[in-house]
Amino acid sequence: MWDYSEKVKDHFFNPRNAGVLDDANAIGEVGSLACGDALKLMLKIDPISERILDARFQTYGCGSAIASSSALTEMIKGKTIQEALAITNQDIADYLGGLPPEKMHCSVMGREALHAAIANYRGESWHDDHDEGTLICKCFGVSSRLIEETIRANGLTTVEEVTHYTKAGGGCTSCRTAIEEILARIASSREPQPAGKESAPAAPVLATRPLIEKIRRIEQELAAIRPLLARDHGDVELVDLQGQTIYLRLTGACSGCQLESITLSSIQARLQKALGERVRVVPVREISPAAAHCTP
Questions:
Q1: CA distances from 192 to 7, 188, 276 (A)
Q2: What is the pLDDT of residues 64-76, one digit of tens each?
Q3: Does this model's pTM top 0.90?
Q4: Residue 88 half-sphere exposure, CB side, CA atoms within 13 Å?
Q5: How much is the pLDDT for 2?
Q6: What is the pLDDT of residues 124-161, one digit of tens each?
Q7: I need a labelling partner for 32 at 20 to 30 A (CA). Which of 97, 220, 226, 284 fits?
């Protein structure tokens, strides 16, 4: 169960400005029903002052998507176009008292819809670059442009964070390598630390520490995770550790679950934080007795 703030619950159960805005002169549509979330944002903008007089929305999605849409309309009403464009997805999340990391993509969708609506008002051809040439995540239709913008705007550093903010990598996971390449390219392009300025101490890298200590830290984290999995009648166990690759086996109801990839991504993010280094979690499947005795 996600840990929602009271404000998120309020905007979900009592959404503000839901419905059709008949005299809207700016409309932005993002997402798709096939991907699970879709938002249509309608604005009435004064042509002289370019101030947003009214805002309505229609959203198909989870509670966080509806709450984020509701919050966005409240935030932008009365603002000028330029003031509205300065609103970030983090501002939307903060307005709601925070969103679970796994639901940050809902605030990103709100920001995208706002930019699309304003482009529509200005007569500009706004598009999300979801063509085949730039499409990274085919499961959720996420482009390289959206991934790059979201990484830069929110200071993301891991694939799991990108998944939380954009959904990319949360389906079949075949795009995770492409996401890692984007993260690496952005990290290498960031400006170096100015000379003479002290940098923050780096997180400890346990790769140089005894292997037994690293294994102990992994087991400690898995022990903390197990009660959460047990709620759904599942479990996890450490199978092997080779360099930066951690081999885990999900058991019980978690094995073969439709959300298995999301579970593994969350575990990987938690282990990376605990270890202070970049690691990769790889699932290990159970081998049947018959298969174990087969020869190639």
A1: 39, 9, 21
A2: 889 999 999 999 9
A3: no
A4: 11
A5: 53
A6: 866 554 444 477 877 777 778 888 888 888 888 888 88
A7: 97
CATH class of 206-283: alpha beta
Q: Which CATH architecture describes the domain 135-189? A: Orthogonal Bundle (1.10)
Query: Does position 260 have pLDDT exceeding 70, yes or no?
Result: yes
Give the fold, CATH level 3, of 6-121: Sufe protein. Chain: A (3.90.1010)
What is the reported pLDDT for 176? 85
Give phi and psi for 161, each to the nearest 5: -65, -40
| Whether residue 221 has pLDDT greater than 70 | yes
Can you tell me which residue has the tokens 């300065």?
86
Q: In what order do the strands lie in the sheet with 52-60?
A: 26-32, 37-45, 52-60
